[in-house]
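User: Okay, second chain of the day. Same drill as before: sequence in, structure tokens out.
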Amino acid sequence: MSLDSMIPVAPARVRALVLPVGQIKRDRFSSFVQRLNEEHVVHLRDISADGRPNRNMFSPLAFPDGAMFYDLITHVPPPSHLALAPFELFREPLALIAIADGQELENVAFSKRQSANGYAPTIAERNIRTLYQELEELRDTYPKILTHEVLIFDYVPHTSDHTIPLPEGIKTIPPVENSKRTTIKTIMCDISSLLLAEMTTLAKSFEGMTAIDSPGQAPSRPGLSGNSWASDDANPATRRNSQYAVSSVTRSASTSGAGDRSQVRMSMPVPFKSLPFGSSNSTPSQRPTTPVRSGLSNPPTTFDDISSVNGSNPDVTSPERPESTRPGSAGGAKDKVSIQGFGPGGLNERWRNKGRGRSIILVGSLYLQAGRWTDALKELVEGATVAKSINDHLWHGKALELIAVCLLLLGWIGVEFQVPTVCLPPNDKSISSISKGPDADEGDSNQPKHLRSLQNLLPDLMERIIGLYSRISGEQLPPLPLSESILRFCSLLTALHLCEGRLNKKSLDSIVSGKWPAKPLTSSPRLTIDPPRSQIATLLFKAFPSSAPEVLTTVDRAIILSGIASILGSLGFHRKKAMVVRELVSVLIGGLVEARTRGAAEVGIHPAAGLVALNAANGHGNGAGALELGEGDIEHGIDAFLGLLCKTYGVVSFDDVVRGLSDESHQISDTDSSVISRIQSQASTRQFGINSVKLNILRACINFSEALPDFNGVLKFSSDLLRTAGSGVAPGPRREDAAPIITRDEQVRLVTNISKTSSLSQRLGLGHLAAEYWDEFLVRGITLDPLPSSRTPIPHSKNVLPGVTTARTSQDVNPFIYNPFMRTPEKAAVARTLVSGEAATFRVTLQNPYEIDVDIESIKLDAEGADLESSVTSTIIGPYRTQILKLTGTPKTAGSLKITGAVVKVRGCRERRFPIFPQPWAPDSETKIKGFGLSALEANKKLPFPGPTLKPDSIELSAIAAQPVVVIKSTSLFQSSVMILEGERQVFSVTLQNLSPTTPADLLLFSFQDSTQGPLQTALTSRDATPAELYEYELILARKQALKLRKIDDSKRYIAPGGTATFDFELLGKPGLTNGTIQVDYAHLGVPPAEITGQFHTRQVCLDLTITVNASVELARMDVLPIQGEVPKPIWSRLGAKNPEEDTSLSEEDHCLLLLDLRNAWPSDMQVSLESKNGIMIKEHILPGNTNRVIFPVPRVYIDDPHASIPALNPSRQRQFVVSSSKITPEIERGNREAFWYREKILEKLSGSWQTLSGPARQGTIELRGIRLAPRMIEAVKIDEVGIDVSVEDPNSGSCDDNTLFTDEFAQVRVVVANRTSEPVFPTLRLLPALRHRPANVALDFTRKLAWNGTLQQALPLVGARATADVVLGVVPLCRGEFEISASVEETRLWTEEGGKDKDKRESTTTTAPPRRRERSDTEIMMDAVLGAKERRIWHSRRPCLVCVRDRE
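Assistant: Same drill. Structure tokens below.
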């Protein structure tokens, strides 16, 4: 059976007051009470009848099918309830059960005084005697209670011979493991047997009364009001100080004496304000009661009033024995006669009938409580008939109510009954009641007729009873019993409605047990079920209490409102329930504040301070003090109660789950999915309900929590109010309005309230109390600041390491080969790389959409993966803004990590994790569709969220192993600047220092940049550049680098931790050089480069140089001249040539003259040296600003293929054939190629240098690449492919001195044709004799001057590659003179490989078919397109053969 006081059969229950005695702990006392509650239904068949003949009026043998229902309470009912007796007997406790702990009997003496009953040999026996003394005191304290028993739980008797005698009234119960199933049941049966016997006396006293007052009526006799229910010792004024004693003594040291009683155990309840033993100390009762003086509606306001209340109370009677204080006893008869006028000459017959009828109803009520329901029905029917006859409407209604309870209980046990005629409606309503019968018959044919009759009767009977209670007359029922009666009736009708309107076994079990079917009702109407919900709700609201404070006490009003809310919730009227709960909160607030002020004044604390300090000192950290709640009551009662209220109205709370702070297993999840689900749930809740109503509800909850005081409630509902008033969006730059809907002053007040409450809880040691922050979008972004360029780790593949794939070092890299260390690193990859042990700076963007400052006590980064140590800082976010905060994070280990949010501790709020939401977000505002009740909200939450997707952001980072930090310590240059001359080379040193104390730098790679590289790279990309120009650009890039590292051993490329290393660099001066950069890429690999498995990271340190290049020796002009005749060696010696060849002179066949005009542009004397590979060297002294001409012989050059394509130093341009992008003719292309190749050959054999003769010593090289060759110069330099040598000789001697011939004598002209090419040649020789020193028309007329033996033009046979052919021609001079014999060779036809091999074969064949040739390749076709088709060539002798003819002497 439920312990609810609002169940329909509550008038049939017997109240038993359960109190602790002796030394006992709270939790054990609660467990003992729970064991008793398990057997609170005692069947009469199990009860033994009392043997005394004058105590058998309520003998259980008369109706063994009945049962007694016990209502075990641990507090004395308030006076407002006791004042209703005897009209409602079930409100007054009839039994007292004192519970003691058997385990404490042997531990410590319950009383320090020696027992008055003699010496006790053991502590246990002495304690048992003490318990008996306390039992006697309880009998004196509560004289109106019929039976008093002491139960010693977990009692283990001694095994020795000495058995402790148990006094009368003390019973023992063994431990659970030693108990039987019937142990507690037997105890309850024994108590019930004694109680039934004592109830006879009480019934006799009622039968002897001639006048019984109704509730709310001025008492006709003292002793019938609730004020005299306990003796004077129980007056709360005399026991007030003991309730708040500061002493640590928790049990009485003596069983008597005023001094000892002041230190009585704090867990011992006292009348009117006893302790519920779920509480932690001696604070007031679970239900604050109305004191005798004026109740909570009139609390004392000064300490004088308190002292007067603590004084003697004349309304309280002196202690008497229970038998003498009961009405109808011998001692009380005189009072009844003298006051009521009993006897002859008394009141009229109607007055006597009223007294007789009321006494019959009281006896019937006792039969009902005793389980004798048939006897109760008989007595109540008689009493109802009498009350109806004399128009005693209150007692008539009470009798009908008790009759209805009897009928329900009889139906519950299956006893057939007949509805009394007194319960039937009047004749004018009989038709309506009879008309309901057929419907019931059609509904359930198995339903017994008597239950069907009762089912049809109940609704009308309930209305009749309420009408009788509400009738206005001289006697009027107080609001409390009227409202509770209505609640019981509505509870009965609700149980009937939930069971489909049928009064059957199921519904009767629900009515008697008070446990309704677990069937939640929706808002859909149930029109076919009688009684309908609307009728029940209409009847229920008649119980709504008046707002006048003097009519009902706060506790009574709260009880009624909670009952109404409970029934409305069972019926599915959740919104009506929320309205009632809202009123309940308002009632509780006023009562709590009043109780708080009164309690503070009574214990000597200023009323303004309240009970905060007292509650905290006594261990109440959760607001249980003012309500006298147990440790778990706040968590499992008040929180759920207020949470349900807020949920009904659609308050945007942090979490839908109502949890207790003491539930350590429940952890709030702040993962991304949990936060997103929370945001979506809150967004759905925001669209439910009315905002103004939500805010009012939350304000009431805050006031209620402050009145308790409940720190956790204040924090929770204050944050919920800020959350509900907020917009719940992540505002964008200009779109969403995120301002809250409450004023700024209220926001400030709420935040201040949270801060103060949190600080107070911290000072009281309640550090676990904290609010939940009200904005889920606190963190709007986290970004990583770029690292300094000198500390940025740059990723590289292992293939770029020198020595891994190619045997080269970084300074030897071809500038046309991709240099990965000179590229711009990828920003995304660099921005995501951290170094272990080095701090990185993060920017955290925080938002505050409220008009208040948000005080952040601590904030740090939240990371996953590798260990990251974040700095912790504090800040204050201004109102309605976003604010950027800088934090540092230091990775401790290498590996990947992810920044997923920030852990923030706002003042007064719980430290929690906030994800990153960088994008603006707002829920979609859909068209509102009508939904019925809370089911609409729950249904929306189950559907997919209709708004935009929420996606938290994160920062993917990678931490690499610890790396060194290298800086440039010093250089040998002054302020990193240098002045240099063109062609000069300077060496300077740079010292690097490793700042890392633990990590060495074992990889050092050097790269260089200068101001000349940019223009050259731009020129290389020009489409108009000729191949020769591209070659020049590439040559300067590749072989004339402005900066380079001097050769060092690779073992020296290492810098120890904290050490230094010095490196030498070489600088070359060249035009256009204004600045340069030395870039050092360094890293710590820890293993040889070949063992690197994946990526590695380097850092860079750069040295920027400022360079000034001045002119030195410039090439102003040049020319190439052929040599006419031989130049003697002495001449070259006089010109400064050193070490000329001793055996030969410089002939015109092998050399030509190079003419150079050199200008000294430096203000210092210069000595210029030109040197050839054959050892010729010329030195020239040039004054400042002067230009000197230097003539230098250079060897002539033979090139096998002067038309070969110009090469490319860049590997990307090294293709088989390159077509010039410019539109030039083949002749110009051939000329350009010839000029390129002959120039390269001259530069290979020639070098120049200079040095200063005054001022600082400087030296360098002369830049000779400015030489450009014209076609005339090429003819002077080149050696032809075919050489022609013409000579004359005497046919007899074979030689001729000085080419002298004699007239009319035979001579021979020998022509030697030399083929210098690699291919055979088909030559045709032509000789051309001519007179010397004559005009051309005369010189060629040699027919009468020379006679030839043969022809001057003849075709020669094929001359092989690099072979010679001799041609001898006879000649006879006919006259004297000087002649010149010139020769020329012309290709007869082009030689081809196939043509040469098949020549003889073609000549011998007789067929006329043309010879087959190999098809021309694409290369030949392209070559013809560039250079033109290959044509026959012709060569001329460079000089003629001079012949002198004379007469022989």
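The CA atoms of residues 620 and 1355 lie 133 Å apart.

User: Thanks, on to the next one.
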